[in-house]
Specification:
This protein has 2 domains: 4-158, GAF domain (Beta-Lactamase); 171-229, Arc Repressor Mutant, subunit A. The protein is 53% helix and 12% strand. It has 10 helices and 5 strands, in the order H-H-E-E-H-H-E-H-H-E-E-H-H-H-H. It has helices at residues 4-16, 24-36, 60-72, 76-83, 93-98, 100-110, 144-158, 171-191, 195-208, 213-221, and strands at residues 40-45, 53-57, 87-89, 114-120, 128-134. Strands 2-1-5-4-3 form a 5-stranded antiparallel sheet, with helices on both faces. Strand 4 and strand 5 (128-134) form a beta hairpin. It starts with a helix and ends in a 10-residue tail after the last helix.
């Protein structure tokens, strides 16, 4: 069984490091790579459209493979996004039948590589894809369950706050928003990061513990949850 609390705590710590040097997506991508112990990783969104975007790639291999899928309109990342299920390939003969142009170009460009793609699906809809790349070993050391949890947590962190600017006038809703703003400020102080990063961490924590953003914010405000003391 995946230890969600331990994984999330490490993801938070790693993402908070070098907060002033990298965008949030880049830090989450690198944190995922380190936790899953792979050679490279990438994060993409809107994978089935012409507006497909690579938010982060940890090295040139990952960036090149995403570029190829961009240009060719086929590949494992796109399939993971469309199906919402993990897609794995070693660019073998079967891969050549599924994605002939991508497989040929990838082999020529980067050589042998294993690719694991996990849909980021923190809500009912798929948000994007976390892709993992290995150059020396055929499979990731962690379980699919762990990789899927990280993909979903990263997706939750990168999603915009769904209640921001929605014009809700209910006093309870406004009270909830005030608590979230206060908790965000406290996380900023705890981890010395920016407000967008702090809110993303709160959102990811809410997803990981299957609760609401308001509940996590309440825990922070009541000092029952302090990210500076998370193991």
């Amino acid at each position: 069984m995946t230890d969600r609390a331990a994984i999330l705590a490490r993801l938070v710590r790693l993402a908070a490091d070098r907060a002033r040097e990298r965008h949030l997506a880049e830090r989450l991508c690198e944190a995922s790579r380190l936790i899953l112990n792979v050679d490279a990783a990438s994060i993409t969104v809107r994978n089935d459209s012409s507006s497909r975007l690579t938010l982060a790639a940890t090295n040139e291999v990952a960036a090149r493979l995403e570029d190829l899928q961009d240009v060719l309109g086929e590949g494992p990342c796109r399939d993971a996004y469309l199906t919402g299920t993990p897609v794995r390939t070693t660019l073998d003969a079967e891969a050549g039948r599924r994605w002939p142009e991508f497989t040929r170009a990838a082999r020529s460009s980067v050589g042998p590589v294993s690719i694991y793609c996990f849909a980021m699906r923190p809500g009912e809809q798929v948000f994007g894809t976390l892709s993992l790349y290995l150059e020396q070993v055929p499979q990731i050391a962690e379980s699919d369950e762990t990789a899927q949890f990280i993909a979903d947590a990263v997706g939750a962190a990168l999603l915009r706050d769904p209640t921001a600017g929605d014009g809700i006038a209910d006093s309870g809703a406004w009270s909830s928003r005030a608590g979230i703003h206060q908790a965000t400020g406290m996380v900023i102080a705890q981890l010395r990061i920016g407000p967008d990063d702090a809110l993303a961490i709160l959102r990811a924590h809410a997803y990981a513990h299957d609760t609401t953003l308001a509940e996590i914010a309440e825990q922070v405000v009541d000092r029952r949850l302090d990210f500076s003391r998370e193991d």
